[in-house]
Amino acid sequence: INDSEGHPSSSHQTLKGTSKWATSLENLLEDPEGVKRFREFLKKEFSEENVLFWLACEEFKKTQGKKQMQEKAKEIYMTFLSSKASSQVNVEGQSRLSETILETPHPLMFQKLQDQIFNLMKYDSYSRFLKSDIFLNHKKCEEQEETSPEAQTAAKRASRIYNT
């Protein structure tokens, strides 16, 4: 037996989409569509900078080379942590951060601040996201797409019969 995409189906299929997002914030942040929907939600709550900072830190950890790290570290600092930042995040210890740390960057230099923002999202906005119209409407669309081809065919037949 194959699923709609021709892959073997099983009763132990991995969760996808909203089902996976609902299991943990980590799962949500691993899915580009989940991140997109979560950003959409946070934008409405005026806290999109939290997920943008978290994503920037994840990207920063993958940066190679001291010069690139310095440039990215400065960009993160100026965008999210500086007192003049355009998308300032609210983290403890922020006032003690100075531009001098940018001279000797290392992949985990923002880890404590990233963890604070992650926990803020996890224990605050994530639970509200799961109850939001953005999440619930996306879940409903997914569920409608998952209906069997037979049901869709029957629905199309019925609509042709009753719409003529």
From TrEMBL:
Question: Does this UniProt record's set of keywords contain Nucleus?
Answer: no
Q: Which residues form a coiled coil?
A: none
Against SUPFAM superfamilies, the record matches this protein to: Regulator of G-protein signaling, RGS
Does the record carry NAD as a key word?
no
A GO molecular-function term, please?
G-protein alpha-subunit binding
Q: Please state every residue range assigned to the domain named RGS.
A: 24-135
One Gene Ontology term of the biological-process aspect is: regulation of G protein-coupled receptor signaling pathway
Stretches for region Disordered: 143-164
Q: Which GO terms describe its cellular component?
A: cytoplasm; nucleus; plasma membrane
Q: Which Gene3D superfamilies match?
A: 1.10.196.10, Regulator of G-protein Signalling 4, domain 2
Q: Which InterPro entries match?
A: RGS, RGS10/12/14-like, RGS10_RGS, RGS_sf, RGS_subdom1/3, RGS_subdomain_2
Entry keywords, A to Z: GTPase activation
Superkingdom of source: Eukaryota
What is this protein's record name? Answer: RGS10 protein
